[in-house]
Amino acid sequence: MNFSTHLLRHFFMFSIWLLALPALAQKTEDELLQTQVRRFEAMIENDQTELEQLLASDLVYTHSNAVVENKQEFLATLKSQKLIYRSVQPDEVKVRLLGSVGIITGRADVVVEQEGKTNTLHLRFMDVYAKRKGHWQQVSWQSTRIPEQ
């Protein structure tokens, strides 16, 4: 094989790889969003086993009332039913991928029950995941209440 043929072959392979990148990125974004949906469902169902898998051991979870919890504290809060998630409806979701880190931002309407009262929270959020051992795990959550208009 002469040099020109060799170069052309590598160029062709590189072009195919470049064309595949957007599809790979879309697949990764979809995978990440599916993980977020699974986490929301596990919170609503208080599925401690599923949450154990989806939450990183070094989780920092900042609620919209500025309470900060680690993984064990967050799981204990859900298990005790001091805070019960009834529904989580994300909207205006955007995904950014930075290597093995995925950042999801958006709005969410969250219905919670706390101390016998049901509240609907309108939030802006940042949800951060890291891909570890082939699986996405939540490493950070930060939410802020949107003021009533």
Automatic annotation (TrEMBL):
UniProt xrefs under SUPFAM superfamilies: NTF2-like
Keyword Magnesium in annotation: no
Signal peptide start and end residues: 1-25
Protein name: Nuclear transport factor 2 family protein
Keywords: Signal
A Pfam family it matches: DUF4440
Species name: Rhodocytophaga rosea
Gene3D superfamilies for the chain: 3.10.450.50
Keyword Signal attributed: yes
The DUF4440 domain, residue ranges: 38-137
